[in-house]
Design brief:
globular
Length: 309
């Protein structure tokens, strides 16, 4: 295969094994989804779908969590409405973002509904460390919870993906998280790899973590950030793609090298009148938000083309 492509839809078509983890056969072109947190100011599902399609995205990475576009308790009533609205707008809902951390009745309700609607990927919540307690004991407890989640994933044929979020969370350093995935060894439990957070956590050595977690990457998040000095301290600040410190040249070359073919979700974490924080009411013209999103999408599509992806 001379070219690498990403797939932003559900796992379909021919499946092949890689390190005991199943991966999808690459699609003909990248399908890029948008994390709907940035569009919480559009509560109407039809308007949401139309806006996403107008910007140029192929689908929505929908928030199905407290204060999201769909709250978990209403998933059976509202998620079908979003899927139908997206069908009318000729876009998809291949993935959702949840706060799922363990197997319980509400988790099962969400996964059962999503699976029935053809959604094949979801992002989990984050396991936070208590610095007053033994770290490895907590890792073992998190592993047990993930085992239960993996069993539900298998029951409903849906892939649960844990993000390597920077901070005091499981997976921030990769080393604590990869052994769990290796031990559970489920084709329906993996990592939503975020090079932005990996760079923030270990700016000069993120590639090491990437190569360790690579067999388990089942979706990727795209965004950028820069370092700024505020109040005498160096801080992280989100920014448009290509204006930050994330080495996308290196990252895209690694994705191509490892032939990684997974769903893509784009995030927007720079100042957009509150939209970047999931605000329901924003302080700037909505056109400024959608214009910024369109610019980043154009930049990323250009990078994919330049790298033969």
């Amino acid at each position: 295969m001379n070219r690498r492509h990403f797939i932003g839809t559900a796992i379909t078509g021919s499946i092949f094994a890689k390190n005991n983890i199943v991966f999808a056969k690459p699609a003909d072109e990248a399908k890029i989804n948008v994390f709907s947190k940035t569009l919480h100011w559009i509560p109407d599902y039809n308007k949401l779908a139309e806006t996403v399609a107008e910007i140029g995205f192929d689908g929505i990475d929908l928030t199905v969590r407290p204060d999201g576009h769909v709250i978990p308790e209403r998933v059976e009533e509202d998620l079908p409405k979003v899927v139908e609205a997206c069908k009318k707008a000729n876009i998809g809902v291949p993935m959702i973002v949840t706060n799922i951390l363990e197997a319980n009745p509400l988790t099962e309700h969400v996964l059962r509904t999503a699976s029935r609607l053809g959604i094949k990927h979801y992002r989990m919540g984050w396991y936070g460390f208590d610095m007053k307690k033994d770290i490895l004991t907590q890792v073992a407890a998190f592993e047990e919870k993930m085992k239960g989640v993996a069993q539900l994933n298998k029951k409903y044929n849906i892939s649960g993906e844990y993000q390597n979020h920077a901070g005091l969370f499981l997976g921030a350093t990769i080393w604590d998280f990869q052994p769990i995935l290796k031990k559970i060894n489920s084709p329906l439990l993996g990592c939503q790899y975020d090079v932005h957070h990996a760079t923030h956590e270990s700016e000069t050595s993120w590639e090491v973590g990437f190569r360790i977690i690579e067999p388990y990457i089942k979706s990727i998040a795209i965004k950028d950030f820069r370092r700024v000095v505020k109040d005498g301290k160096v801080q992280k600040e989100g920014c448009p793609l290509g204006q930050g410190v994330v080495n996308y040249g290196k990252y895209l070359s690694l994705l191509k090298q490892y032939n990684i073919s997974v769903p893509i979700t784009m995030h927007f974490e720079y100042s957009l009148g509150g939209a970047e924080n999931g605000a329901k009411t924003i302080s700037i013209d909505p056109k400024l938000v959608t214009s910024a999103m369109k610019k980043d999408l154009t930049v990323f599509k250009g990078w994919l083309k330049d790298n033969g992806l």
